[in-house]
Amino acid sequence: MPERAPDGYATWRAYWESMGVPAEDLPTGAGDIPKSIVDPAGRGPRMWFQQVPGPKIAKNRWHFDLKVGGGRDVPLDVRARRVRAAVDQLVEAGATVLRIKDEPDMGLYAAALQDPEGNEFDVV
Fold it and tell me: I want to staple 113 with a disulfide (CB 3.0 to 4.6 A). Which of 36, 54, 87, 95 is the partner?
């Protein structure tokens, strides 16, 4: 089912604006449409669909965000520690770290990785 905006926010766009995401980084047009789906029973993973700029240059691929940190209700230092531990395991399994997203002012710690076949994914 589509994921609703966080409590206290009418739309996802309003939520991201409150977090300080620059307007130029937010989607235009259908910005209030949920970009993620969740398991109504709460057992399955959250799946987020990210719109990316630029034309398609290869066959379609999925981009997954692996949510290991526990969400924004968990203190940032705890989430960062969990993300680093998961990244270490994934690197040991063959993934490559592309970049670390360490933005404490936005409450974000995440890592962008690439699997051995070149598919990118994030660990948050």
Answer: 95
